[in-house]
Amino acid sequence: MTDSAELRDRTRELLAAHSPAAAGRLDFLRARFDAGLAWVHYPEGLGGLGAPRSLQAVVDAELEAADAPDNDPRRIGIGLGMAAPTILRYGTEEQKQQYLRPLWTGEEVWCQLFSEPGAGSDLAALGTRAVRDGEGWRVNGQKVWTSSAHLARWAILIARTDPDVPKHQGITYFICDMTDPGVEVRPLRQITGEAEFNEVFLTDVRIPDSRRLGDVGDGWRVAQTTLMNERVSIGGMRIPCEGGMIGPVAKTWRERPELRTHDLHQRLLRLWVEAEVARLTGERLRQQLVAGQPGPEGSGMKLAFARLNQEISGLEVELLGEDGLLYDDWTMRRPELVDFTGREAGYRYLRSKGNSIEGGTSEVLLNIVAERVLGLPPEPRTDKDVAWKDLAR
Hints:
Blueprint: H1 4-17, H2 25-34, H3 56-65, H4 77-90, H5 93-105, E1 110-113, E2 129-133, E3 136-143, E4 154-160, E5 171-177, E6 183-188, E7 197-208, E8 212-213, H6 219-235, H7 246-255, H8 262-289, H9 297-320, H10 345-351, H11 362-373
Parallel strand pairs: 1-4
Antiparallel strand pairs: 2-3, 3-7, 4-5, 5-8, 6-7
């Protein structure tokens, strides 16, 4: 069994052999992966040591103290939080060896081709088709709200391979090369002025069968691993006390007493407590992950994240009064990451509106929590046993 003392020794050996001050950033990250110190709970040879997930904090603390470079996790969050655990669980050994190392080092950015114009909340109704074509597949369709598609080399993709069975059964999961012919990425400009999201058009895109994850027709089950991890990565991020959206509001409250009113004070106190409860609940959820795969509890965390962000940002704009209406820059740009706390209150207020849509709409997540966490009776689903081709669209 790998313990904390052994991990400290391994980390110090890494630092001695690859000094952060002398080694290039990418060289250091590759060496860290090869030493099994990328994600210690992954298997040996895949960036880990088969150690308990909780011991990752030991490695991270040693590296932070040495001012070692990280892999910029916010920039590659889709790869780290969604693609990697899915590849680890369902990928072949060749797929794991090919994709996990450059994914973790940030050499290759990933995106997620799931949602469609007609299949967002009801994702299983997706219409993008993948048809057998020799030793591979030919894919046609459209995806939407795709974060980082303009930066990505690879995408996790679900497509319909059998229209003659009910919608959940005829889906297959693929890895798509975003540089292949037929892949077109178009920006979607948001209310913030930016275009961090995209729509992606797939026209006769050839995907070899070697880039399929899981069995043909089993894509919905594979996708559940992605979705559960996605909600944990969005709603269960590790943040310090007064981290996230509540931090700037609390800072403004302390520094500008002239803005305070009794009503705003009461609302701030309530939201501060709720933000702290959510933070501690997220910590507990991460501890539960040590024992296995994420479950539907991540949906509850993502729900809380969306609601709190919107309420807190609304309070911040109201607290600032006229200053809260200011906005620094409406220039159309395609950012590499979302920075909730690095810009002004107006940006946070506008950007948080998307939190109740991305990563699963709040309405769908409420159903998941009701049925899978609380055990309430499921809603009637008249299309459950109807072939996808016969559904009304």
